[in-house]
Structures are given as structure tokens and as C-alpha cells.
Amino acid sequence: MRIGLFVPCYIDAFHPEVGIATLELLERFGLEVEYPRAQTCCGQPMTNTGCHEESAATEELFVRNFSGYDYIVAPSGSCVHHVRCDMDAVAQTDDVRQVRARTYELVEFLHDILKVDAFPWAEFPHRVSLHNNCNALRGLKHASMSELREKAFSKPADLLSRVRGLEFVHISRPDECCGFGGTFSVFEKGVSEKMGYDKVHDHSRAGADYVVSADSSCMMHQQGCAQRLEMPLKFIHIAQILNGARA
């Protein structure tokens, strides 16, 4: 199985350790993983702000970089959601359709495609609260949504339950947005801050040592909120835990 590794811009710039953990984790399962060095942004920020035409060249480059792989895997639900659901600025050729269909977020790839049932190298002896990114939750169906009153499930929790020593704590509003929302946090700063403060208070009340998520963007926002409130919460990407990080 030949995998193209897509590392989103903000991970490359602020959380390169997440990209490294994703690569190492995929290689643990014997996969042939390649990182196209010409890759850049997938076009999500421009599309999210309504600049659809301006994202066309970026989307075209993404398709050129990742055509021909069996799967494209990224440690970001929001970026994968853009590729799969919103990459509409380019003409929908066969190459574009194939790249869109083959692009998976890391959790869903491990859970749905590889069907991983053990991480024998992983141990994380901490109390963990789980945060689901909105696009991953409602766009990629990472977990059940309370407003739909559907049967409860959680792909991230299922994977993390196979990590030795990890203890889940449960927040009161598990599928509520943290307020990041990309450029929303810039243009609606006050609302974004309040949502972030509410979220980290929820994690803290639950007794979490660590907040874990499949999206570094949400964690970056929440970490800033926690620091301003002088909360001792720590934040870690799910790829790092599944790859064997202990702190």
C-alpha cells in the first residue's frame, strides 16, 4: 500500500512533531509512505473565507502532488474535510475525483481502512479528555453527534482505548465547538475567546491532565486559552499517543 503523507501548513509551521509521529506510526504498519516535497496548503483557508476562485491554483497543486497514491493520509480532520467535501474550485477531472476519494484523516484511516486493533508499543498513564474537531465530527463522522441522538460511537476513543494506562475523563459538552474555526478566531475574536474559555473550563472540571485531539489547530487555540487562564492543562495530538509518546 503506497501512502502519500499530507502535512497541513499549520502542523508544518507550529507542530512538526505531529507530522513526524504520523509518519512513524504509518511506517510501523509496514506501509510505504512518501512525502511529496512540493506540497503546500490544500486551499482550505481561502475557501472558508469565501475566496473559492483564489484557492484553485492551490487545489490544482495538491492534486498534482498526490495523484497516483493508493491513499493520501493527513493528521487533520479539517484539511481532509476540505479535500473530500469542498475542493470544488478546480475542474472535476478523473485525477481530482480520485485524489478526493482517496484522502483520509489519520484516525479514520487507522480505524476504517487498516482496522487497527492494537498498539503494543503505546502506553500513556494519564487522565485524558477528548476533543473532536467540528469538521472531523460532523463532516468525517469521527463520532456520534448528540443533536442527532444516534447510537454512541467514537473512532478516536476506540483507538485510544487500546493504549495501556490511558484513563478517559468525560466533559459535559463533548461535541461543542472550541471557537477556533480558522479565520473565525481572527474576525470574531471575542466570541472565539469565550468559546475557547468555556471549552478549557469543561476539560479542567472533568479532571483532565491532557486534552487529546486529531486536530492541532483546535488544540493550538485551546492551549492559548488555557495559558491565559493559567490552567495546568497539557495538549497532545492523537498521533503522538498512538505512536508511543508518554508525555
UniProtKB/TrEMBL annotation:
GO terms for molecular function: oxidoreductase activity. Residues 4-83, 130-221 form the Cysteine-rich domain. InterPro entries: Cys_rich_dom (IPR004017). One of its GO terms (cellular component) is cytosol. PANTHER family: LACTATE UTILIZATION PROTEIN A, UNCHARACTERIZED PROTEIN YKGE. This is Lactate utilization protein A.
